[in-house]
Design brief:
30% of the residues lie in helices and 21% in strands. By secondary structure, it is an alpha+beta fold. The structure holds iron/sulfur cluster.
Length: 331
């Protein structure tokens, strides 16, 4: 039996200082990812620093219209917050599409940002997996890669999708991740936080050693926006996305003034489709315009042996979402 030391932090500074005492260390928040992986012996920390009781559980509206979310705000609290439901509907919907009620009650905002991949070869503890055991290979590339493997942002080292729904909505909204570490505080653009696997798939995020996420700050909501999250999956609850879309639209009659699109289940990180957004800006809403934008969003997709279906499915996830939001303009 492996033993580990449990330390409950009483301040952010103490959490960071304690975390820095060991290389085999982990912050513990809701524990919905970490404890699973420790039990599976995929992660082997010799100490965990519990940050769950830190005073990082507020949702505030800043004077510039942005919304600052404490790292320990639960997924349930965030999804049901009145401002999130009214101004950032896409985020509330994405959160409520994930996991189960019990898990959402425990899972935190920072933990959701930091969740690990669901690749079966990563979690079985024995297969070749560059993410778990650098240099060992990637069993998924020639293996069973139907559901939790990507078609965008892959490399010959790793093809696992990022599993979060919440992060897809945040990528569409625009956000920054506030972190605190031994050298002080800094902000990381949300789109730069998660890293592509490239030749170093074990590096998953832009955190430096011993840095702790303290907040995620959402950009101010677009005026008169409509937004929605559409998640396509094998069963209707407690299942990861095969393909999903987070769409935000601002319409002026039939003209699309602004469009934001991000995708889940398709990329190795939450995937913002900037070129597809540009293709919609200023054009008249139509099924043809939506289909063109969806084609652009998936134009660089590379399929593997069992997941080519994700390319048309991903296009449909975007088109259906746009059609639903743009119904008034199309009528
Ligand atoms: Fe490991 Fe990534 Fe390959 Fe899965 S896809 S086996 S996580 S390297």
């Amino acid at each position: 039996m492996r033993t580990l030391e449990y330390i409950r932090a009483s301040s952010t500074e103490q959490a960071i200082a304690t975390h820095s005492r060991s290389d085999a260390t982990a912050f513990l928040a809701g524990g919905t990812t970490l404890l699973d992986l420790v039990k599976l012996d995929i992660m082997q920390p010799d100490q965990v620093v519990d940050v769950h009781n830190l005073a990082l559980n507020q949702i505030e509206t800043l004077s510039d219209g942005r919304t600052r979310i404490g790292a320990m705000v639960s997924n349930t609290q965030l999804a049901n917050h009145p401002r999130i439901k009214s101004e950032y509907a896409v985020l509330s919907q994405a959160l409520l599409s994930g996991a189960t009620t019990q898990l959402r009650n425990k899972a935190t905002t920072a933990g959701n940002v930091m969740q690990r991949v669901r690749c079966n070869y990563f979690r079985d503890g024995v297969s070749a997996c560059n993410k778990r055991n650098p240099g060992s290979g990637c069993a998924a590339i020639e293996g069973h890669n139907r559901s939790v493997h990507a078609v965008l942002g892959t490399s010959d080292q790793c093809i696992a999708t990022h599993p979060s729904d919440m992060c897809v909505a945040m990528a569409a909204i625009g956000a920054s991740v506030e972190v605190q570490g031994p050298s002080g505080k800094r902000e990381i653009n949300f789109l730069d936080f998660h890293l592509l696997p490239a030749s170093t798939p074990w590096k998953e995020h832009a955190l430096k050693p011993d840095e702790l996420i303290t907040h995620v700050t959402l950009d101010a909501p677009l005026t008169n926006n409509q937004s929605a999250y559409l998640k396509l999956r094998d069963r209707s609850s407690y299942q990861f996305a095969l393909a999903s879309s987070a769409v935000i639209l601002v319409m002026d009659g039939k003209i699309i003034r602004e469009a934001r699109i991000a995708m889940g289940g398709l990329g190795t990180k939450p995937w913002r489709a900037l070129e597809a957004e540009r293709a919609l800006q200023g054009v008249t809403a139509s099924p043809e315009a939506f289909a063109k934008a969806a084609a652009i969003a998936l134009q660089d997709a590379v399929p593997y042996s069992h997941n080519a279906y994700k390319i048309p499915l991903g296009r449909q996830a975007i088109v259906r979402n746009l059609m639903t939001l743009g119904t008034g303009a199309l009528a």
